[in-house]
Amino acid sequence: MNKETKLRIHNITAKAALKVGSEAWVLKKREEQRLEAAQMKFLRHLLGITKLDKENNQRIRQKRGARNIINETKQCRKKWLQHVQRMDTDRLPKQALQYGPKGRRNIGRPRKRWRGQLFRNMMWHLQH
Fold this sequence. Notes:
Blueprint: H1 3-19, H2 29-47, H3 57-64, H4 69-86, H5 92-98, H6 114-127
Helix pairs in contact: 1-2
């Protein structure tokens, strides 16, 4: 099988499996690293590149035209937000997005929230 066919198979199967439900994920740095590592493991295996070849991940993606899985999951979240914002106000996803709980949070480090992570990423992209 040639490399182009293998890359198409990767995009259809492996990448889809890695991104299932990514619209609702709240990713921590460690989870992002694990996703990227899984993607690169698939790509290296499909393309016959070993770690001993000392090929840079970014270079492998550029040569083969593959996109970073983290950027794609962020794009999925952004599309989902736009989709929910177009919904009628009586729809449950829109109500859940606009919901703000009452009361105080527990003491300690605040948990990452979907909305906060999404807007933080959007602001970062606007600044850079």
